[in-house]
Structure formats: structure tokens, C-alpha cells
Amino acid sequence: MDIRSQISMIFHLDKCIGCHTCSIACKNIWTDRKGVEYQWWNNVETKPGTGYPSKWEDQDIYKGGWEKSGSSIKLKGAGKVKGLGNIFHNPHMPVIDDYYEPFTYKYLDLIESPAGDDQPTARPVSLITGKPIDIKSGPNWDDDLSGTPDYARKDPNLVNLSPAEQEAMFQLEKMAFFYLPRICNHCLNPGCVASCPSGALYKRGEDGIVLVNQDVCRGWRMCVTACPYKKTYYNWHTGKSEKCILCFPRIEAGLAPACMHSCVGRIRYLGVVLYDADRIEEVASSDDKDLVQNHLDLILDPHDPAIIKAAKENGIPDSTIRSAQASPTYKFVKDWGLALPLHAEFRTLPMLFYVPPLLPVMASLGKSDPAQLDKMGPVVKQWNDDWLYDTSTDDIFGTLDNARFPIEYMASLFSAGDTEMVKARIQKLMAVRIHRRHVTVGDISAEKSAEALKQAGLTAKMADDIYYLTSLAKFDDRFVIPASHREQAIEMMEFTGDKKGSAGFGFKEGTAQRGL
Fold it and tell me: 20 to 30 Å CA-CA from 97: which of 1, 178, 230, 293?
């Protein structure tokens, strides 16, 4: 076993209020300068929606991530042969219109315009060209336009839903949405690292953070294509690639990343997990049906004496092991089985995990009057309901299959299409809610509460622990990171400064090894 440590984050989507405070905090610290105006290392998307850049989840367009090739995997749109073939023209790279052309307003026109009969306006101007532009999009227009044909209805995750189910999602009385915060996933099998001809991208040995060496980067932009989450960007001013660095200078000083520190909903949890690096290629090459579970199994038990012994032999400090044992990430992912990776089918093994939103699940509907159905049109007639909720059920979890958000949609996001995995996690969230309702309000019987916990595979103590960490946790409960080890940082600097730390245009062994 090759035991390594990885900083990992949990996003609890039931708590995100879509305020974008995290995005603004990140923007003000890291991307408030020339050449990166369009970059949002942290962004919050509205789902259903097309996201940022537009339709980033559709790899038929962008060719990001890995794909199965026999018993192994290969990059979809990058790599030695594909990279050289597209080195002067890459048709799979997002252009500025896929993000949005950054703009500001000529505010001085409001106060310096000469007197006249008309109210002066502040004209929008491009932050790239400095010329007036017509604003066509923004980094999250899904927020306000999510019901329009140009946004939510073009969400790639709707492809597995029938036309009737899709139409039902957008009827006024069934409309529901949730927010999806995104940063770089700091993957275990990062496509960006494996695709870089210059070897500028690397994964830090002490904590797994993926970074770009600005001195080595030559702006080939293969990393932009290879990242399926489109979280590697090109700085048009410096000619270098940039990405989220997980605020490692703050983490090394004992401070939380800016996005986590500023989060109003307290949805983020940061902790350390241990994993077996020897199994990365094996897990990333798993069959589709086993991919997510193998991904979760890659995270090891930090309380296991054999794992602790192997970790120490591999140079992992005691403080890191202790942090892994108290890690909120490990609790959500492994102990409680509540969190899942985003789009595991990209096979990059992302190290950010999401607790799916519970949302209003009571949506069992009755039959409609035939005359009313005729007025609603053929698609709604096929769906055949009257948009009135019937919340009665004899089965505690009987409404999951009739949730406002179809389980298939959530599975497309979080479990590579495995609906049972999503169901299991929503059942647990519902069971915790039922249990706490019994404890605090008392209008649910002890028998029903116990039955809900049993069906979800939880105990009363586990439910109380989930409730505490979700609702009452202090900052130190959500941010569990070991102290920085200066000696390791110096070793890493020496390593990356050596030729072994990078790979040249010939795609030397270094890049391939770090990519898997």
C-alpha cells in the first residue's frame, strides 16, 4: 500500500442559499486582476441549468476527463497524440462566449453627461477590449433565467428523463431548484496534470492540492480541455494557465480557504482523508456500475492500526493522521454514507463530495379532470396529474420515486446514474429529519422514528451526530486540518525544481505517472 493524505471538502447542498458570498470572496483575493476577469475559481450554479462555462458537463462537446480503453483508461481530448494534433487549433476548448465576456459599466457617464432631456445611462463595456458591448450572458444567469428554454431546459443531466418528466419539472407548481457550488476537485487522477505537455501542473505530495507552476507553464491549454469540470483557466494577459489553489497559503497558516471562511450557510467542511495511491489506476478503470463504490472504497479507515502503520512508514506525520481521524469529510463520506462525488463518470476521482439536497420530496399527484388535461397540452396530458400535492403515504419513504426532482436527475449528477445510491442518501436525510422531529416536537411516534432510522441504516446516535455536524457544529468541527510541516514543503520545492518534477514536450514518464 502507498498510503497518502488528501485534503478534501464536503458541500452540504441542503444548506446552500445561493448568496454567492464564496464566489465574491474568491474573486476579490485571487482573480481581481488583468487577464482573469472572466475566471471564477469558485462559482455557484443553479440546477437545473447549463452552468459555467455553458454545458460544461457535456463531454461530447468538450472532450474532458478519461474514458475506458480496454482494461485501462485514456484521456478523451488530450494526451500525446491528440494534444500534438490539436496544438494549433483545439476545437474542444471553451471560448470566451462559453464563459461570458466580462464587462463593467461607464459609471462616469451618469454624472458627467451634459444636461439633456433623456436620463443618462451607464453603457456596458468589455473588460477585455474596452469597447461597448451588448451583454449576452453572465457567470450565473441560470439564477434568474432558469425556467427559460436557453438555460435550465438545456441542462445535460435532463437527457435521461422522459419528455413528460422534463415538462413536469418546469410547471409552476412543481418548480424546484437547488444551488451547486463548484471549485477545483483536486482529483486523485487529474486529467489536467496528465495532459500538460510542459509538466507545469502537479499534485502536492503532502496534501494532494493540484497546482500550476507558473515558471514552467507554456500556455498550451491542454489542461483546459482535459479538465472535465472546466476548472483550469487561461490567463489571456500572462499567457499562463491558472486554477483554484485551495487557498494553500491560508491553509498553511492555519486559516480556512476564503470560500469556506465566508460561507453564510456554513455548508462547507474541510478535512483530511487517507487513500491508497497504488489503487488509483485500478479504481479509475473500474466498470461503470462499480466506479462510484470503488471510488468511495479508495478512502481508508484512519482508525485501522494497519493503515496507521502503513501511513507512518510512508512519512505521513502523526498530526495528519489525527486530523484524518477527526475529519468531517470521512464522517460524511464513510461513517454515515451521506456524500457522493460530482460526476464520477469522468474518472478523475474528485476529492470534493456533495450531500445531495433533500428538497421537498412529497409530490404524489392525483388524476386530472380530462377537460383540464386538454387545456394543458399533449405532454402534460401524458403526465396526467392535476399539480396538487397529496402528502399522505403509508410508507415512510414512499414519496422518493415521486420527488420534485426525479431521482434519475440527481443520479446523473452524483452517482454516475446509480439511482439506488442517491435514494439511500436521501432516505438517511429524511430519517434524520423524522428522528429530530420526534425528539424536538414529539408529533412523530418513537416507533415511526425508530422504523425510519432502521430502514435508512442509521442509529439514533448516528442521527444525532449528523444533526449536530449539520446544524450546530462550531468552526473547529468543520475545519480540521493539521499544522503545516515546513520540512515537507521544502522537500516538495526541491523536487519540483528538479527535472524529475516536470516533463518536457516529449511527455516524459513523470507526467504519465502523476496523471495516474
Answer: 178
d(C-alpha 131, C-alpha 123), whole Å: 10
CA distance 46 to 138: 13
* CA-closest candidate to residue 383, choices 176, 177, 172, 162: 162
pLDDT, tens digit, 9 for 90 and up, residues 109-152: 888 888 888 888 899 999 999 999 999 888 888 877 665 667 88
Q: How far apart are CA 417 and CA 78, in angstroms?
A: 25
| Cα→Cα distances 101→98, 138, 450, Å | 9, 8, 54
Averaged pLDDT score across all residues of the chain: 85
pTM: 0.87
Count of H-run helices and E-run strands, the chain: 25, 17
**What's the domain range around 393?**
364-398
Name the more confident of 139 and 184. 184
Cα dihedral 150, 153, 157, 160, rounded to 10, equals -140
Pairwise CA distance, residues 328 & 197, whole Å? 36
HEC string of 57-108?
Answer: CCHHHHCCCEEEECCEEEECCCCHHHHHHCCCCCCCCCCHHHHCCCEEECCC
Amino acid at the residue 109: D
Asked if residue 284 is part of any domain, the answer here is: no
- Give the total number of structural domains in the chain: 1
The verdict on residue 387 lying in a domain is yes
What value does the mean pLDDT take over residues 471-499? 72
Using CA atoms, how far apart are residues 152 and 209, in angstroms rounded to an integer? 32
